[in-house]
Design the sequence.
């Protein structure tokens, strides 16, 4: 008995000397501007001991979270591209059973610059995914090689993967995943007999929302109406957002904290903003059938409305901002109903205080032509529009502000030029410089 007690004591003392162990951490050499920083330990953590035990240099605001044996940090906005960050985990951080980290753990990583993804070539029957570096114009390289083509895609929050919708046999569309660094592709969701498209990746990286349409191949019925489904990457769970199969929907959009999912429910003629944790929802009536994007701070959601210009027979599109921060939603117009301009695209600035729009101004009197959409910046608290890119030889759209907020990605189309194809360009806010990334390309996205 004495020997047993001595042995137990030795094991306990040895366990104390071993302490808590960091099993994995990332990023290690190079990281995304959107993060996250992740630490995985060999045991579940004490719920409080880790607070204040991890430092990031240079300092950056963000959100820490801990679940089980994992700690993660997501920056508020983005890590600065080209900057080297140091992460230091202090000794003393404890597990749920009291084992402590015995020594400091420290590592560095550098933030890579954002890249650009797009589809091309647009003048061919099938399109595939390409990646390019904005610092090297026309550097695009093909990264998928689908025989029937890619019809849509979404970049993962950290830029390490791309989920894409690939056309298959009998018009079925399945979801595939590209590992960006290795170039490997694999099927994520086999949608035989259906079309699974327009994927939207949750900002926390855990789920993908997408539209699913049943093709009804073995019946005399036409394809069904679209419904939004949720796929959970960790478990493989795949289910419709609504338990009521009579409810239809499309165009899923995630809130920045991944708690809300907005979509358009055409059965009720409204945008539905659904809280996935409580299965509660709010509705925003609109006949236009479009869902905009959440602002980076999660406060606003925008959508378009159509109005008749006072005193004219002309109709134009304006944007409405929905404030979701309170118990009840409130709405405001981005521009006055008396504004004759036609806003056809919209992107949030990184600080959520301003937006960028693609705007068609009304034609001048006696001029029988319509100018292409040009790019303007507006602040939420002022209606004055600042011109960013105004070129009558081009029309602009598909706007997207970079994760760092320093550049604007867009599609441009040359007007009046025979044989013109859509082009992908980047506009730098700092020096107002325009850089062409690719010709004969469409659907550009930032790859953080």
Sequence:
């Amino acid at each position: 008995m004495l020997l047993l007690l001595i042995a137990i004591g030795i094991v306990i003392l040895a366990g104390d000397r071993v302490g808590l162990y960091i099993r994995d951490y990332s990023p290690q050499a190079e990281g995304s501007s959107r993060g996250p920083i992740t630490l995985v330990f060999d045991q579940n953590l004490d719920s409080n001991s880790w607070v204040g035990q991890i430092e990031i240099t240079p300092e950056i605001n963000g959100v820490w979270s801990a679940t089980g044996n994992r700690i993660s940090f997501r920056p508020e906005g983005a890590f600065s591209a080209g900057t080297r960050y140091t992460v230091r985990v202090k000794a003393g951080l404890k597990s749920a059973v009291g084992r402590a980290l015995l020594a400091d753990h420290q590592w560095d990583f550098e933030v890579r610059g954002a890249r650009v993804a797009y589809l091309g070539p647009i003048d061919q029957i099938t399109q595939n995914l390409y990646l390019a570096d904005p610092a090297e114009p026309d550097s695009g390289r093909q990264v998928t090689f689908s025989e029937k083509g890619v019809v849509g895609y979404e970049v993962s929050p950290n830029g390490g993967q791309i989920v894409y919708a690939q056309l298959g046999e009998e018009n079925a569309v399945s979801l595939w995943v590209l590992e960006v660094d290795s170039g490997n592709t694999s099927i994520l969701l086999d949608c035989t007999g259906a079309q699974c498209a327009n994927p939207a990746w949750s900002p926390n990286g855990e789920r993908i929302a997408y539209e699913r349409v049943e093709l009804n191949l073995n019946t005399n019925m036409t394809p069904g109406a679209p419904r939004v489904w949720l796929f959970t990457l960790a478990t493989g769970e795949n289910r419709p957002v609504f338990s009521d199969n009579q409810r239809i929907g499309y165009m899923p959009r995630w809130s920045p904290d991944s708690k809300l999912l907005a979509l358009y429910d055409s059965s009720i003629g409204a945008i539905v903003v659904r809280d996935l944790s409580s299965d509660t929802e709010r509705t925003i009536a609109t006949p236009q059938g479009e869902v905009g994007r959440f602002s980076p701070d999660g406060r606003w959601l925008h959508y378009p409305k159509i109005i008749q210009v006072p005193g004219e027979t002309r109709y134009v599109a304006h944007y409405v901002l929905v404030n979701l921060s309170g118990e009840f939603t409130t709405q405001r117009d981005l521009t006055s109903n008396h504004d004759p301009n036609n806003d056809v695209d919209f992107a949030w600035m990184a600080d959520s205080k301003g937006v960028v729009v693609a705007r068609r101004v009304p034609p001048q009197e006696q001029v029988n032509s319509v100018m292409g959409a040009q790019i303007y910046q507006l602040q939420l608290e002022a209606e004055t529009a600042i011109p960013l890119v105004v070129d009558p030889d081009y029309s602009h759209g598909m706007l997207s502000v970079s994760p760092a907020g320093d550049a604007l990605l867009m599609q441009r189309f040359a007007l009046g030029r025979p044989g013109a194809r859509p082009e992908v360009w980047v506009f730098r806010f700092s020096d107002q410089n325009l850089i062409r990334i690719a010709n004969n390309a469409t659907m550009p996205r930032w790859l953080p």
About this structure: DSSP finds one helix and 35 strands in the chain. Residues 18-111 form a domain with the Immunoglobulin-like fold (CATH 2.60.40.3710). The helical segments are 2-18. The two ends are 61 Å apart (CA to CA).
